[in-house]
Specification:
The structure is a single chain. By secondary structure, the protein is mainly beta. The protein folds into two domains: about 25-60 and about 245-380, Jelly Rolls (Sandwich), CATH 2.60.120; about 70-240, Sandwich (Jelly Rolls). It is about 5% helix and about 35% strand. It has four helices and 23 strands. The chain has helices at about 170, 330-335, 360-365, 375-380; strands at about 25-30, 35-40, 60, 80, 85-90, 100-105, 105-115, 115-120, 125-130, 130-135, 140-145, 150-160, 205-210, 215-220, 235-240, 260-265, 265-270, 275, 290, 295-305, 315-320, 340-350, 355. Strands 3, 16, 17, 18, 20, 21 and 22 form a seven-stranded antiparallel β-sheet that branches. A seven-stranded antiparallel β-sheet has the order 15-10-7-12-5-4-23. A six-stranded mixed β-sheet has the order 9-8-11-6-13-14, with no helix packed on it. A hairpin with a 3-residue loop joins strand 4 and strand 5 (about 85-90). It is elongated, with a radius of gyration of 22 Å. The relative contact order is 0.19. Bound molecules: fe (ii) ion.
Length: about 375
C-alpha cells in the first residue's frame, strides 16, 4: 500500500523547504523504514505546558551511578534500562577481575566511554580505549583487566541472536564499504597458552557464568583460557568510533537509520559523529520531530557538543519512549541556519519493545528533563 496523498500545506519533498511558519513531524512506522506521513504543525509538538501520567522523556546522569564493580573487584555492572530483549548497564571496573566471566544470557556490546585496558578472551587479547565498541559473543570466556582507574563502559546485553554489523545487503545502495569498512574492525590478538606458566602450587581459577541473571562459579585447577589455537568465523571484535565514517547528504537530512553501526534482535545501535550539516538553505539541519511510533529511543552522549539538545553533557543518557514527541530544543531550532557542522559523539540504541527503568536509573534521573523544551526553563537549568 503506497499512496502519495497531499492535503493542505506540505512540502514537495520531506525535510526540504517547509511551508513558512510550520514545524515538520515525521510520523512513521518501523523506525524510519515503514510507511510514513509528514505532518506540518503550527507549533513545535514538544511545546507542552504540563505532562500528567507515567510517560515522559527521561534523562539520566550515568556518572552518578556507582556500580559495585567500581569499588569491589568481585562486583558487577549496574542495570539502568531493560526489557525482554536487552539490558543496558554501566560498568566502572577499576581493578582487574579476579575471575573469568562467561555470559550465557546473550552477546555483550561494550561501549568504552572512558578508560584503557585489555580484555582477555578465548580468541586472544583485545586492547580497549575510549570510543571502542567491543562485541563479545554469548558464552565466550573473558576477563577485564583495566589499566586506568577511570573505566566507564556502557554494556548492552542482547538476549536474541548475535550483535552484528550491517550486512552488504542492508547497506544496499550506499555500498558495502560505507559507514565503516569491516577491514577496520579489530579481532583479538591470539597468544597461544604456554603450559609452563601454569602454577603447580594448587592455584584455583574461577569462571563466573551468568545464566538467567544469576551467577554460578565453576572452579578449575588450570587456566580457563588454555587454548593453543582456534579456527572458525565466530570471534570477539571491536570497532572504534573514529573509524566510522558517517554518510550525509548536502541536500537532505538523513534519518538516524543512516548511521546504523550494529543490528540485533529487536534493537539497533547507531553512532552520531562529527560531520558537515546540510548546506542547501532550504533543507532542515536539525533532527525532525517524531513520536517514535515503534521504537523507544536511547541516546548515550559520549563526547563533544550535542547541538540539538540543551543542557546535555557527556556521560548522560536520554530515553524517549514510544508515543511522545521529541525533536530539537528551542535553542537548536533558532541556531539552525547558522550551524554548519556537528561535533557530537553519541551512541543511539533504538529498542523495538518498551524499556523499563531500573532503580539505579531512577536514582540518577534529571526529573525536570521534560521541561527542557520550554525555552525559559531550559535557560534556568543552565544557570
Ligand atoms: Fe529520535
Amino acid at each position: 500500500m503506497n499512496w502519495p496523498i497531499v492535503k493542505g500545506k506540505a512540502t514537495r519533498q520531506a525535510h526540504v523547504a517547509l511551508p513558512e511558519g510550520t514545524f515538520e513531524e515525521e510520523h512513521g512506522r518501523e523506525g524510519f523504514y515503514g510507511r510514513v506521513s509528514h505532518l506540518y504543525h503550527t507549533h513545535p509538538p514538544t511545546g507542552w505546558t504540563r505532562i500528567e501520567g507515567p510517560m515522559k522523556p527521561h534523562a539520566f546522569y550515568l556518572d552518578r551511578i556507582t556500580p559495585s564493580d567500581m569499588t569491589d573487584p568481585r562486583g558487577t555492572p549496574e542495570p539502568v534500562l531493560y526489557n525482554d530483549d536487552l539490558v543496558l548497564s554501566i560498568s566502572r571496573r577499576s581493578e582487574p577481575a579476579p575471575f573469568y566471566s562467561r555470559n550465557a544470557d546473550g552477546d555483550e556490546l561494550f561501549f568504552v566511554h572512558k578508560g584503557t585496558g585489555k580484555i582477555e578472551t578465548d580468541f586472544g587479547v583485545l586492547l580497549y580505549e575510549p570510543g571502542d565498541y567491543i562485541v563479545i559473543p554469548r558464552a565466550t570466556t573473558y576477563r577485564f583487566v583495566p589499566e586506568s582507574k577511570d573505566t566507564f563502559i556502557v554494556v548492552v546485553e542482547a538476549h536474541g541472536s548475535e550483535i552484528l554489523p550491517p550486512t552488504p545487503e542492508q547497506k544496499g545502495l550506499i555500498g558495502m564499504h560505507a559507514l565503516y569498512d569491516t577491514s577496520a574492525m579489530t579481532i583479538p590478538d591470539f597468544i597461544p597458552y604456554d603450559p609452563k606458566q601454569e602454577s603447580s602450587n594448587g592455584k584455583e581459577y574461577e569462571l563466573r557464568v551468568k545464566r538467567l541473571g544469576e551467577y554460578t562459579s565453576i572452579f578449575y585447577p588450570f587456566h580457563p583460557i588454555d587454548l593453543v589455537g582456534w579456527k572458525g568465523d565466530l570471534t570477539a571484535f571491536k570497532i572504534n568510533m573514529r573509524d566510522i565514517r558517517p554518510v550525509m547528504s548536502p541536500r537532505v537530512h538523513l534519518p538516524p537509520s543512516a548511521h546504523t553501526t550494529f543490528l540485533a534482535d529487536n534493537f539497533v545501535i547507531c553512532s552520531f559523529l562529527p560531520r558537515p550539516l546540510e548546506e542547501d538553505p532550504d533543507t532542515l539541519r536539525v533532527p525532525f520531530y517524531h513520536r517514535n511510533t515503534d521504537y523507544d529511543e536511547v541516546l548515550f552522549y559520549h563526547d563533544g557538543d550535542f547541538f540539538s539538545r540543551d543542557n546535555i553533557k557527556p556521560a548522560m543518557l536520554t530515553l524517549h519512549p514510544q508515543g511522545i514527541h521529541h525533536g530539537p530544543h528551542p535553542k537548536a531550532l533558532k541556531a539552525n541556519p547558522n550551524i554548519m557542522r556537528t561535533n557530537e559523539y553519541a551512541m543511539m540504541l533504538d529498542a523495538k519493545h518498551p524499556l523499563k527503568i531500573a532503580p539505579a536509573g531512577e536514582s540518577a534521573e534529571w526529573k525536570e528533563y521534560w521541561t527542557s523544551w520550554q525555552e525559559k526553563k531550559a535557560e534556568a537549568a543552565t544557570a
